[in-house]
């Protein structure tokens, strides 16, 4: 993985206090004065025998007035460093949290078009009814590999389709095959907009958003952030009457130019959030505003058929290490449900596999 600079700030040695700088300046001044002292007289016994010629200590002594000037200089250095760092307004614990970023963060790339083909084939094999979404990802990966980009970023994507078809499952699988962190924000939550961008002082509580928290935790600049059921997002209101909607909060993060120098409301520091892969899900898009829809690619998806669900059960059952008879029982149950007109969705199939796994783990009764 390549490393990039992520935070618009400078880091200095946090352990070097004004007192430590003061002692260093005093030592340096004494060394300069010692160097200017006269050498031993030529031909003296001290010179011949290599003995150091002693000089009266007053010659390098620091006077009280000089000490005050040095102390002011050291304090000024600390103040200027804080101003230059861009972090001087933060509390000590917040500065320490951001210090993890001083050496940069990693970027996970797509190294070749062949790798892109393999990832897309694996996803399509597991979830063929998500073909439209997989094709969008495939083209983006091949484009990134062809350009030789240092990291991969999936352009903002909205998966639109009925509930229970595996939109969130597909996003999790993408994070696994790309080997990048994943974080999910439930848009139906009351504080969803804060969960994405964080909040500043003046709100009921203050914290950084989940995307930034994820990057700080894993030190990877291109995680996948899933915003689930975005059409259900409400509008958050602060104790001061300030309002913030999730779609409005997302706008600067979805545009690469503005995301590259995005300022966190909590830290009030700029970060390069332009490498994040955003995947939104929705059952209905009619209520989503045009400025938001204009910044994303909407992919419409349909229900999986019987063959799709059977293939998914086989694939996931094998990944979970289920025995053949257990997987066959789940597949048979899916077939029976279809004949009865029940049409199970992906969540139902996953619960069936989890139940089969639980039964498989039960001890054998003699």
Notes on the protein architecture:
The structure is a single chain. The chain is an alpha/beta fold. The chain has three domains: 2-95, no CATH class; 106-300, 3-Layer(aba) Sandwich (Rossmann fold); 306-361, no CATH class. The chain is built from 15 helices and 13 strands. A five-stranded parallel sheet has the order 4-7-12-3-13, with helices on both faces. A hairpin with a 6-residue loop joins strand 10 (262-263) and strand 11 (270-271). Helix 1 crosses helix 3 (64-85). The longest helix has 22 residues, at 64-85. The mean pLDDT is 86.
Number of strands: 13
The CATH superfamily name of the largest domain is: P-loop containing nucleotide triphosphate hydrolases
Gross geometry: elongated
Q: Which strands sit side by side, in order, in the main sheet?
A: 4-7-12-3-13
Give the mean pLDDT.
86
Q: Per CATH, what is the topology of the largest domain?
A: Rossmann fold
Structural class, judged by helices and strands? Answer: alpha/beta
Described by strand count, sense and barrel closure, the largest sheet is: 5 strands, parallel
Unreliable runs: none
Order of helical and strand elements: EHHHHEHHEHEHEEHEEEHHEEEHEHHH
Helical fraction equals 40-55%
CATH architecture of the largest domain: 3-Layer(aba) Sandwich
Question: Domains counted in the coordinates: how many?
Answer: 3
- The CATH C-level name of the largest domain is Alpha Beta
Distance between the termini: 54 Å
Count every helix, treating DSSP H or I runs of 4 or more residues as helices: 15
């Amino acid at each position: 993985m390549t490393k990039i600079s992520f935070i618009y700030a400078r880091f200095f040695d946090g352990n070097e206090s004004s007192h430590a700088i003061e002692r260093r300046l005093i030592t340096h001044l004494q060394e300069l004065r010692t160097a200017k002292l006269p050498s031993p007289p030529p031909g003296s016994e001290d010179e011949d025998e290599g003995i150091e010629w002693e000089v009266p200590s007053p010659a390098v002594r620091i006077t009280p007035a000089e000490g005050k000037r040095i102390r002011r200089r050291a304090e000024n250095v600390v103040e200027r460093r804080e101003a230059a760092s861009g972090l001087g307004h933060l509390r000590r614990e917040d500065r320490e949290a951001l210090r993890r970023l001083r050496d940069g963060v990693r970027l996970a790339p797509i190294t070749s078009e062949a790798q892109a083909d393999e990832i897309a084939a694996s996803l399509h094999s597991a979830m063929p009814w998500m073909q439209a979404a997989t094709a969008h990802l495939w083209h983006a990966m091949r484009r990134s590999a062809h350009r030789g980009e240092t990291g991969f970023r999936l352009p903002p994507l909205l998966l639109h389709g009925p509930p229970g078809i595996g939109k969130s499952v597909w996003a999790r699988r993408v994070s696994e095959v790309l080997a990048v962190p994943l974080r999910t924000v439930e848009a139906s939550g009351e504080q969803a907009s804060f969960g994405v961008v964080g909040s500043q002082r003046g709100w009921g509580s203050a914290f950084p958003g989940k995307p930034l928290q994820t990057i700080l935790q894993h030190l990877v600049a291109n995680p996948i952030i899933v915003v689930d059921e975005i059409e259900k997002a409400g509008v958050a209101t602060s104790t001061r009457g300030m309002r913030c909607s999730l779609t409005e909060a997302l706008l600067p993060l979805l545009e690469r130019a503005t995301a590259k120098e995005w300022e966190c409301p909590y830290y009030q520091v700029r970060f390069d959030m332009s490498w994040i892969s955003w995947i939104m899900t929705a059952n209905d898009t009619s209520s989503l505003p045009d400025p938001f829809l204009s910044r994303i690619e909407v992919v419409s998806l349909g229900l999986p058929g019987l063959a799709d669900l059977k293939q998914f059960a086989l694939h996931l059952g094998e990944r979970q290490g289920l025995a053949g008879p257990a997987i066959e029982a789940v597949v048979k149950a899916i077939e029976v449900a279809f004949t009865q007109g029940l049409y199970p969705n992906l969540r139902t199939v996953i619960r069936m596999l989890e139940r089969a796994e639980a039964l498989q783990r039960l001890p054998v009764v003699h």
